[in-house]
């Protein structure tokens, strides 16, 4: 009886020890977009591996696995997937045995957390500056000086631009004759935030010509990687709205207030210069852009890339030298730029201005051109009639050969015969002489018929060419009539070039 008691006690002790050393580990794959194969090792204190196994955790699911981890052992978890890195997790026997939550997690829960490769999303400082220079909102961040534009410049202003010397001759502000607040349309108004990751190393490579805010970012960052955050406040676009009169009409209706008189004087007295007349039809402004620097901090609890308890909800990045980093959310302010003009949209009405100046000179020339055009249209009418007769006569010849074709004098109908060419047959040597003679006779008839069709097709192309030339002349003639009535060529609407912007800034900074 005593021996039986001892055996039962030993068995109970082993079962109790087994229960204390076995843990139901829950692997959670809730945040990823693919199945993950989780490999896990049980490692002794001396670093030797006691057990290796794996479990496949499907996407959007959890799986439990009972794993034996004795005292003095550590469970190491290595989630793996093709081209994706995941957070490695370590749990000691003591941690698994404890019921205390760490970072909001039970020690028995292993969250499969993807590690983002920050090197794939970061850019070199040189590339960052290139991107900023081509961005309509952020390119002004690279300017070393803030430029205050002339108060005369507003939507509805007229500009006289000397294209030869690349300078603004004069700006004429809008007056109540053609502008009030009801003429202004504001659209695309918004605030927004942009973020870019770069490195201190690339900032050093870029040299001394980097803007001040980039230098500040590189000095502030504790890690090699750091983020720029640009917060844009009140970006908007404003446009000269609906008006009863076009800029071209306003130009000559109010010649002194719009600068037309000045343009006329410059154009007629100084032929060595190329003068332009622009109307400011729209612009884009930003109240301010604030540049922040966001640093990264390490999240590893050990020197190697082995995380025990990643903070819940924190995005982890793979940094340099195998260390894990996450955003510090420090947002140190590096610079602020205010009252930014992103672009100017101009309506180039130079053609209208020149036409008004040259109106008397051009009148006689237009009449001559009209006479030439009329004579040319007459020639084309005669050519169209001649070719049309040739096509109809040839078609009649075809109908003599084959009266199955309908009778018609319509060129559009006749031209369809090109799709009905006869087939020229091959003549095998194996046929009888009579059959060979018959096929050759039919081939001669087919070739004759096809040559007539080719003639019609050639003449039809000639016919269409003359029609197109006549239509073009008639269209040009109509445009001349319209211009004569409106005295208003279609203007070019575009954004102001960098050269024109530089000229505007120089005009504004003049003494």
How would you describe this structure to a colleague?
- The chain has 511 residues and is α+β, with helices and mostly antiparallel strands.
- The chain is 38% helix and 29% strand.
- The chain has 14 helices and 18 strands.
- A hairpin with a 4-residue loop joins strand 10 (158-162) and strand 11.
- The longest helix is centred in the last third of the chain and has 54 residues, at 433-486.
Features:
14 helices; four-stranded antiparallel β-sheet; 18 strands; alpha+beta; 511 residues
* Unreliable stretches covering 5 or more consecutive residues: 8-18, 300-309, 481-486
- Please state the CA-atom Rg, rounded to the nearest Å: 42 Å
Averaged pLDDT:
83
Q: Characterize the overall form.
A: flat
What is the helix fraction of residues, given as a range?
A: 25-40%
The beta-strand count equals: 18
Please indicate the percent range of residues in DSSP E strands (runs of 2 or more): 25-35%
Distance between the first and last residues' Cα? 116 Å
**Count of separate DSSP helical elements:** 14
Compact summary:
With 511 residues, the chain is α+β, with helices and mostly antiparallel strands. It has helices spanning 2-21, 93-97, 118-121, 125-133, 200-206, 212-220, 247-253, 255-258, 260-269, 350-357, 359-401, 411-414, 433-486, 498-508, and strands at residues 22-29, 36-43, 49-57, 61-68, 74-80, 85-86, 89-92, 109-111, 114-117, 158-162, 167-172, 184-199, 225-240, 275-298, 316-318, 324-327, 332-348, 492-495. The strands form three sheets. Strands 6, 9, 10, 11, 12, 13, 14, 15, 16, 17 and 18 form an eleven-stranded mixed sheet that branches. A four-stranded antiparallel sheet has the order 3-2-5-7. Strands 4-1-8 form a three-stranded mixed sheet.
């Amino acid at each position: 009886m005593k021996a039986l008691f001892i055996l039962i006690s030993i068995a109970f002790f082993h079962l109790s020890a087994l229960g204390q050393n076995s843990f139901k580990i829950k692997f959670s794959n809730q945040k990823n977009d693919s199945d993950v194969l989780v490999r896990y090792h049980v490692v002794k204190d001396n670093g030797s591996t006691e057990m290796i196994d794996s479990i496949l955790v499907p996407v959007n699911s959890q799986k439990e696995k009972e794993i034996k981890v004795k005292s003095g052992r550590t469970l190491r978890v290595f989630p793996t997937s093709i081209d994706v890195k995941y957070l490695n997790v370590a749990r000691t026997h003591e941690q698994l045995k404890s019921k205390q939550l760490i970072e909001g997690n039970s020690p028995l829960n292993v969250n499969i957390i993807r590690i983002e490769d920050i090197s794939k999303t970061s850019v070199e400082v040189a590339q960052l500056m290139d991107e900023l220079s081509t961005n309509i909102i952020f390119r002004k961040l690279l300017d070393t000086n803030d430029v205050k534009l002339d108060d005369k410049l507003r939507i509805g202003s007229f500009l006289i631009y000397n294209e030869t010397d690349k300078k603004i001759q004069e700006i004429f502000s809008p007056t109540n004759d053609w502008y009030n607040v009801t003429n202004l349309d504001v659209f695309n108004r918004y605030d927004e935030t942009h973020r870019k990751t770069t490195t201190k190393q690339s900032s050093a490579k870029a040299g001394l010509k980097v803007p001040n805010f980039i230098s500040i970012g590189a000095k502030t960052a504790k890690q090699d990687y750091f983020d720029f955050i640009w917060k844009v406040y009140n970006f908007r676009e404003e446009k000269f709205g609906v008006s009863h009169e076009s800029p071209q009409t306003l130009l000559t209706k109010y010649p002194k207030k719009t600068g037309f008189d000045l343009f006329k004087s410059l154009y007629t007295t100084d032929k060595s210069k190329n003068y332009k007349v622009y109307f400011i039809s729209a612009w884009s402004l930003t109240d301010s852009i604030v540049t922040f620097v966001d640093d990264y901090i390490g999240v590893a609890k050990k020197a190697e890339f082995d995380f025990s308890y990643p903070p819940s909800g924190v995005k982890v990045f793979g940094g340099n030298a195998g260390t894990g980093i996450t955003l510090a959310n420090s947002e140190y302010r590096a610079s602020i730029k205010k009252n930014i003009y992103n672009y100017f949209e101009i309506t180039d009405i130079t053609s209208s201005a020149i036409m008004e100046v040259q109106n008397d000179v051009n009148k006689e020339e237009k009449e001559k051109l009209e006479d030439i055009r009329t004579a040319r249209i007459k020639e084309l009418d005669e050519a169209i009639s001649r070719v049309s007769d040739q096509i109809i006569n040839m078609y009649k010849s075809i109908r003599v050969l084959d009266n199955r074709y309908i009778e018609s004098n319509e060129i559009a109908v006749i031209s369809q015969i090109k799709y009905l060419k006869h087939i020229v047959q091959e003549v095998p040597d194996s046929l009888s002489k009579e059959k060979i003679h018959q096929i050759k006779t039919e081939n001669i008839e087919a070739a004759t018929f096809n040559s007539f069709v080719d003639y019609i097709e050639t003449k039809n192309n000639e016919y269409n060419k003359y029609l197109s030339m006549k239509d073009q002349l008639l269209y040009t003639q109509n445009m001349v009539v319209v211009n004569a009535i409106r005295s208003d060529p279609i203007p070019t609407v575009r954004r102001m070039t960098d050269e024109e912007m530089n000229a505007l800034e120089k005009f504004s900074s003049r003494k």
